């Protein structure tokens, strides 16, 4: 049986895991990254992740340090304005619209939007450039045994890896989290999200629009033009039975339904990709660390897709973990370092999970009285400039004093 050693073993080769491999590899650490499923890097291929990720301003530094931003920037669409629309009246027509403009708090846009399948493509290419990083797609983590001095990981091909630090980036059902005995608190909403891309006649103007009515938000996020037509990614959250009904619709009927749900703000919407369906939960691990092990991304926390928080929280995990590793490279993976990682990340993540949970519950409500309160709240918060700017900074992930 082959046995090898490394500084860091990243279990999970999704967007967060590949970002971790690129980040730690770019910092000079020896990294092995494994995932049982090879990444799908073509939009048209079966299994392609048609969701998009909006990288907010604080994530830009992490992407640059990982050597990823130069690859991603040519494909990214700027998000200059975050538009909140309440369509809680008798019809889906917008009745309250408020724009949060990044220019009020920064010289940069709020963020940059990219398709997840493209992120995987560019991240795989970046990892391949790094001589100290080994990516093993199609190979998973079979078992984990931790000691004071190392994490001993047996891979699905029989290889045994001795790592100073094991990074669990293996998703919401994390086998590594289970192996090291960390539980998680999960909140289920009975919701699902449809994710797909559309074209429309009216330009999006680099505005990301979140429309609230019932069942959950309907969000349009700018993408580059497609065949000369403005293009947006859509995440449409609904209660489970309604989401399944929409998923099964014939395309022409679906186009009409989603145009009505959007309030036709960009004119008729035309589906240009297949529809994908994702369950919606909130989840937070009881701890973010164990012996020789750090939990990151969805192994540590999961939130509904509201406010572009999910992957940005994941990159914040990686930023803190890298700072600690760089600060004491001789002590990577030791108990004191991992306890500091947990203390720095857990309170902030817990607060964001709680906040997004509350926002999602409010967005789901369909009762007219609750809709009216939601609309009044949007108008009131926007109408107070100091509150509006504080909310924008908090949404970006900026730590507030």
UniProtKB/TrEMBL annotation:
The protein's superkingdom reads Bacteria
Name the pathway it acts in. Answer: Cofactor biosynthesis; ubiquinone biosynthesis
**Keyword Flavoprotein in record:** yes
Q: Report the cofactors.
A: FAD
* Residue stretches in coiled coil: none
In terms of Pfam families, this protein maps to: FAD_binding_3 (PF01494)
Q: Which GO terms describe its biological process?
A: ubiquinone biosynthetic process
Gene Ontology MF: a single term: monooxygenase activity
Q: Does the keyword Ribonucleoprotein apply?
A: no
Q: Where is the FAD-binding domain?
A: 6-351
| Key words of the record | FAD, Flavoprotein, Monooxygenase, Oxidoreductase
NCBIfam families xrefs: PRK07494.1 (NF005691), Ubi-OHases (TIGR01988)
**Protein family per UniProt:** Belongs to the UbiH/COQ6 family.
Protein name (database record)? 2-octaprenyl-6-methoxyphenol hydroxylase
């Amino acid at each position: 049986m082959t046995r090898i050693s490394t500084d860091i073993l990243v279990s999970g080769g999704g967007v967060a895991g590949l970002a971790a491999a690129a980040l730690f590899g770019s910092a000079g650490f020896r990294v092995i990254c494994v995932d049982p499923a090879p990444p799908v890097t073509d939009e048209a291929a079966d299994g392609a992740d048609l969701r998009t990720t909006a990288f907010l301003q604080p994530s830009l530094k992490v992407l640059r340090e990982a050597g990823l931003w130069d690859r991603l920037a040519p494909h990214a669409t700027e998000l200059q304005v975050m538009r909140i629309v309440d369509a809680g009246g008798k019809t889906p027509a917008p009745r309250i619209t408020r724009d949060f403009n990044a220019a009020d708090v920064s010289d940069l846009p709020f963020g940059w939007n990219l398709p997840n399948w493209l992120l995987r493509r560019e991240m795989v290419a970046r990892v391949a450039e790094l001589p100290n990083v080994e990516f093993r797609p199609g190979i998973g983590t079979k078992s984990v045994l931790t000691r004071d001095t190392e994490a001993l990981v047996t891979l699905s091909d029989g290889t045994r890896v001795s790592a100073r630090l094991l990074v669990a980036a293996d998703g919401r059902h994390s086998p590594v989290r289970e192996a090291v005995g960390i539980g998680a608190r999960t909140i289920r909403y009975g919701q699902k999200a449809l994710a797909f891309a559309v074209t429309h006649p009216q330009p999006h103007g680099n505005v990301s629009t979140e429309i609230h009515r019932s069942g959950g938000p309907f969000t349009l996020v700018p993408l580059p033009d497609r065949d000369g037509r403005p293009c947006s990614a859509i995440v449409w959250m609904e209660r489970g039975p309604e989401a399944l009904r929409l998923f099964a619709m014939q395309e022409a009927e679906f186009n009409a339904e989603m145009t009505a749900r959007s309030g036709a703000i960009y004119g008729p919407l035309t589906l240009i990709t297949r529809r994908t369906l994702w369950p919606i939960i909130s989840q937070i691990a009881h701890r973010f660390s164990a012996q020789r092990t750090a939990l990151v991304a969805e192994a540590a926390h999961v939130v509904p897709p509201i406010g572009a928080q999910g992957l940005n929280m994941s990159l914040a995990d990686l930023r803190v973990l890298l700072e600690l590793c760089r600060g004491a490279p001789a002590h990577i993976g030791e108990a004191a370092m991992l306890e500091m990682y947990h203390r720095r990340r857990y309170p902030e993540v817990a607060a964001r999970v709680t906040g997004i949970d509350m926002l999602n519950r409010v967005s789901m409500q369909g009762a007219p009285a609750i809709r009216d309160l939601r609309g009044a709240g949007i108008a009131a918060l926007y109408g107070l400039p100091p509150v509006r700017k504080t909310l924008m900074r908090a949404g970006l992930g900026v730590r507030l004093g």
